[in-house]
Design a protein that fits this description.
mainly alpha, two-stranded antiparallel sheet, globular
Length: 565
């Protein structure tokens, strides 16, 4: 029999494990930040691309960590928890994304290395020429980044709530911060600090640690879920007993029909891998071989971890903590929505906590209380790592876009390297504060707002980044487009995403936009927003390019020659 004193000491140690491990994780990030700063150089290229010398390990893990955001570890499993098996095919987007990195990324790398490109707008602006293409490309990057950073910061709040559920609110400068608000501010400013100081080098090195944490955390959570259900007749038997709506297409909410899933798995996946943070990682790789090897790692390892460690856990959560349909008494005109089990929380958006709650429920039962607490804490830190690794990449990318494509080209072309680097740091500070303010405002909003769901923010961001895909395919492979075609296509694509997204209703009210939203909602029942904007963009791009002056033949030939080297 274990002596009471030893048991008491073990319990005390267990209760402080989250604090100890989280502190150690943050100290490690700070250490990598300092090392990255000391190894860096005061140049724009070094700050944004770490000298273009990243090897296979760093390249593959930083690409995976940037792709695997809080959407992957919170929002996507929250969608599986709500809708069931209908959303599981979404994992195919990772394989398609890996193929995109192999074929598009390798060519972006060649051109970037040959011409010294830093941002996506550098490439498409140089190829098509003119200020309009560059500015529109920069705009798509900025429109992608803000929703993505917001959802990572929201995840920090969720995680703080689960890591420290019994900690009372903190009073600071007359304001009260509960654990959600404290987590939002802590994640934001720690991430901002190491991006500010170390640039791409610190971001990539921290992504390596964060990538390892999130991959191992996913797999352990999946293993614990399967073992847990063994005493309940087996995992697959439990899943087979889910209600019919969770086992059939189009899912419980009726959103995920075959056409919708096809458009997401193609357009959205390719849109996600050409967003600014990923595009810049293609430039930063040491060689084409490095990038292609990383693409294969991405396409093979990530889908396996995603299905086993995310989809599997989310379906287990639906079985263990079944949701229910409820009407919102504050909004009788709104149809009933899915509310999660009380263990997840009282709000419809608490479905995003499915993986966290399931891990906290199953892991201690499978591995024992002390070991289980250690593992759960590491899993929660892995989710935090996923959020931070994507937030840092996107803040860093936004800094590059606004510095390189706006400040450097149009506002202060005579600025020194040091001045441009410091302007980029100011952008990171302003963007972080703006994202935190948006999260604070959204957290105070009353009623059910779909934009508070992490998955919805992810798809909105990808819909904007997807607008660069027609231009990327053309300047890397086809060489048929024109400058005016590129401008027209990008303009229409961005406008369409605005019109069919949430913005008209938010800006002009529900009644004023009733006719428009009725049409667009019907359209979005069958095809995803990113695909609608992308198709409109591509059609206008092709038509206008047929009737406008072609790019000089020698200019196209120069790019073709570089792509063959």
């Amino acid at each position: 029999m274990t002596p009471p004193l030893i048991l008491a000491a073990a319990e005390a140690t267990s209760s402080y494990l989250p604090h100890i491990l989280l502190g150690a994780y943050m100290l490690l990030l700070i250490g990598l930040c300092v090392v990255g700063y000391r190894k860096g150089k005061a140049t724009e290229e070094d700050y944004y691309l770490a000298g273009r010398g990243q090897g296979v390990l760093v390249t593959s893990l930083t690409i995976m960590a940037t792709m695997f955001s809080s959407a992957a570890l919170l929002g996507i499993p929250g969608t599986v928890y709500r809708d069931g098996l209908a959303f599981v095919p979404f994992a195919l987007n990772l394989t398609i994304g890996g193929i995109g990195i192999y074929f598009l990324g390798s060519r972006m790398h060649r051109l970037g290395k040959a011409n010294g490109y830093v941002t996506p707008a550098d490439l498409v602006g140089d190829y098509y020429g003119g200020n309009a293409v560059r500015l529109l490309a920069a705009l798509t990057g900025a429109l992608y980044v803000l929703p993505y950073v917001i959802m990572q910061i929201k995840a920090g709040g969720y995680l703080a709530e689960r890591l420290f559920p019994d900690v009372p609110p903190i009073v600071f400068l007359g304001s009260e911060y509960d654990m959600f608000r404290a987590g939002v501010w802590a994640l934001s400013f720690l991430t901002m600090a190491y991006v500010l100081i170390g640039g791409m080098r610190s971001v990539a090195w921290t992504d390596v640690i964060q990538g390892m944490l999130l991959l191992s955390g996913m797999l352990v959570a999946g293993l614990a879920t399967v073992i847990y259900f063994q005493d309940k007749g087996g995992y697959f038997n439990a899943i087979a007993e889910l209600p019919h709506e969770a086992l059939s297409v189009p899912g419980a909410t009726g959103k995920w029909n075959a056409w919708m899933m096809l458009s997401i798995c193609t357009c959205a996946s390719l849109g996600a891998i050409i967003q600014p943070g990923q595009w810049m990682r293609f430039y930063a790789a040491r060689s084409v071989k490095t990038l292609r090897q990383s693409a294969l790692v991405f396409a093979i390892i990530l889908p396996f971890c995603f299905i086993f460690g995310i989809m599997l856990v989310a379906l287990g959560a639906r079985s263990e903590f079944p949701p229910e349909w409820r009407e919102d008494p504050a909004k009788p005109e709104v149809a009933a929505v899915i509310y999660p089990h009380e263990e997840l929380g009282p709000s419809p958006t608490d479905t995003d906590k499915a993986v966290i709650v399931m891990a906290q429920h199953t892991v201690p039962k499978v591995f024992g209380q002390t070991t289980g607490t250690l593992i759960v804490t590491l899993i929660l830190i892995a989710v935090l790592a996923a959020s931070m690794s994507t937030a840092d990449s996107n803040l860093h990318a936004l800094s590059a876009v606004l510095t390189r494509d706006v400040y450097d080209k149009y506002l202060r072309p005579e600025a020194s390297e040091r001045e441009k680097t410091w302007f980029g740091r100011v952008v990171i500070i302003v963007a972080t504060i703006a994202a935190v303010i948006f999260v604070e405002i959204g957290n105070k909003a009353q009623g059910f707002n779909p934009l508070t769901l992490i998955t919805q923010l992810m798809f909105l961001a990808i819909a904007f980044s997807s607008q660069l895909l027609p231009l990327a395919v053309d300047c890397l492979y086809l060489h048929k487009g024109t400058r005016k075609g590129a401008v027209a296509g990008l303009t229409i694509g961005i406008l369409v995403v605005f019109l069919i997204g949430p913005f008209p209703e938010l800006l002009f009210g529900k009644e004023a936009t009733a006719g428009l939203t009725s049409f667009t909602d019907t359209l979005k029942d069958y095809i995803h927003t990113s695909a609608i904007g992308l198709f409109a963009n591509a059609i206008i791009f092709a038509i206008v390019s047929c009737y406008t002056p072609k790019l000089p033949a020698e200019h196209i030939q120069k790019f073709r020659k570089l792509l063959k080297n």
